[in-house]
Amino acid sequence: MGVASILICEADPDVRRLLVVLMERLGHEAIVLEPDAEVPPHADVLLLEPAARRCVDQAWQVRLFLPQLPIVCMGPPPDGPAFLEAGPVAFLEKPFTVEALAAAVTLFAPSPV
Fold first, then answer.
1. What is the spatial order of strands in the sheet that 5-9 belongs to?
2. Global pTM value
3. Which domains does the chain have, with CATH numbers?
4. Which of 31, 47, 71, 93 makes a 20 to 30 Å CA pair with 39?
5. Could you tell me if residue 76 is left (phi over 0), alpha (psi between -120 and 50 degrees) or otherwise beta?
6. Is the CB of residue 59 less than 8 Å from the CB of residue 48?
């Protein structure tokens, strides 16, 4: 298998940069999902900060184009059942370890070569 494409939707720029570095160190391709950006035609996992309304909205946009894409939420889900309908498959409570993040991504992404 090849490198996994990891979409990152995180509102905090420092955390976003850290996630990019971590994903690249794990051998994956990190793609930051910018506001109003087009959804890439292929991805393996979406890392999502569910506390940011923009990120939740983008998760729904991603679902339109990539309905089977696994979503790893980095934090608790927002209040209400609507977000859970977007189909997150894993939750990582902050603060989490690099090992926990790597394990969550590895569950759904192909292993880097």
1. 29-32, 5-9, 45-48, 71-74, 88-92
2. 0.83
3. 5-108 (3.40.50.2300)
4. 93
5. beta
6. yes
